Amino acid sequence: MYSATFIFKEGDFNEEFFKLDKEIAEAAKNSVGYLGEESWMNNDAGLVSNVYYWESMDGLKELMNNPSHNIAKAKQGEWLKGYQVVISQVLRTYGDGTLDLPIAKVPPL
Known about the structure:
By secondary structure, the protein is an alpha+beta fold. The protein has three helices and four strands. It has a four-stranded antiparallel sheet with strand order 2-3-1-4. InterPro entries: Dimeric_a/b-barrel (IPR011008).
């Protein structure tokens, strides 16, 4: 399993931002092997974190090549006050099974 974590500090959002954000979310959900996503906020630091999960790199690459995603990347400076992306391979997951999280749906190694 692979994840892409997009961490950002909110800036000035406009109609174009929300349109692209919606298009990117739909593209992610329709990409190959998409498993789900989670969002987190750190109010103290003013940061938002969106984590997307895929079965393989194929879906992640598909999203990275999406035209709306590429437009948003080029224009991020207009809307965000900084960002960081972390691409990870998930080696193992475990828990008590009570949380309904995308990452919990993949059996551990």
